[in-house]
Design brief:
Phage_Baseplate_Hub; Baseplate protein; elongated; little secondary structure; 119 residues
Length: 119
Amino acid sequence: MKERTQLTSPQVEVRAQHVTVISETVDVAATSVGVKAVDVNVEAPHTGIKALNVTVDAPLSTFTGDVTVMKKLTWLGGMAGSGGVGNSAVITGNVNVLGNVNASGTLMDNGGNSNHHSH
């Protein structure tokens, strides 16, 4: 078995029904990399993407575990969700609302004040 295989060419093309790469490390250095596939699976203890800008163009994206966003989360198309076990949403910190808040249930604060009072 060879210790190392190196491909040096202006263009390398692989056409196959199935390609398997088993290696401790795989390095790809390229100006542009394109992958066209029906299905792409990546299984690893940690996968990182470091880029100036990443666009995911998909009609539907699903995350099967918890998601942490380290900086500001911005959305343009509205927001919808449903609860799981316990509270549907928990926000720690101040919340500013520019516009109206509609609630079909009771609004309560820690002091026990509700939206059912009169002046």
